[in-house]
Amino acid sequence: MLRVIEGAGVLLLLSVFFAYMLAPLVPPVRRRVRIGRRRRPISDAAAILLLYIVIFMPGALLWRMSKPAVRHWVAVTAPASVDRLFAGGTIAPLEAAFAHVPLPSGVREALIRASARIAAALERSTRGTLAELITAARYAAWLAVAPFVAFLLLTGAPAFQRSALRVLPHGHLQWRLEEYLRDVNSALAGYVRAQAAAAVIVGAACVAGFLLLGVSSAISLGVLAGILELVPAIGPLTVLLIASSQGDRVVAVVVFLAALRVVQDYVVYPRLIRHGMHLSTLAVILTVWTGAFLAQAPGVILAIPVAGFLSVSVRHWREYREIERLVETTKTGPA
Prior knowledge:
The chain is an all-alpha fold. It has helices spanning 2-22, 26-32, 44-85, 92-99, 105-137, 145-167, 172-213, 218-228, 234-243, 250-277, 281-332; strands spanning 34-35, 40-41. It is 83% helix and 1% strand.
């Protein structure tokens, strides 16, 4: 049951993400595509369907051609890359590097032990996330639900908001709900903007890093890293597994990606979320850790949006209670 809830939450989040990515494109399409003698703009629904045709027809053709290769990569290549990456000797290159550095023996041994612990933790995390990826691949067909839900959100959200507001009595309750829905929308939009910015930053950093390291297909691999950054947890792991096939450069690539993840996850990304969703850096880090602890990869994907939604909800509930107290005080006060 928990898996079903996690899967539904991830699909809903992907739908919301997709809806926010498409929303800015709808008005330009309506302005440019007109029908009839009077050259009237097409409806929002027609504009969205036109965007779907433009986006998904090439995507469907590409998927049809690459489907066997993707399945083989998930089922065979990725597990083999993990085994090769962590096959008894991941730390050996670092030990050899430390042997040439003039350090006291105690410091050198401490560094080697710390490196071994980090490598073990990385291996556990990688294998666990890979297992999540393999499990999720069985349900990849459910991703087709996301565009459908996004279509409903884009076409039905305004009408839903108007109906919800009409149900409530006029006054501060109606105003409060309108403000609440606006703030939830702002928080989710901030999350989408932060994810898009993170994808651009990671993509640019990976292109530059891979070029400096002499990685083959550095530009395409860096662009892929940026695109996969849109999928927290699973995306970075996929880039690591792909990059681990770089032969004698594997250690340098892994160290570069590990350093990039530390900077991205603990410096850059929290700042992006802080500006987009008004969550503190510490709150972002603790939220992601909590999500990973409770539900692994799905928890990491859902952690920040859920935290933003709860933050907005708690703030509005407190403000609502304050208004209610003020109203009660006014009613019971002296005439």
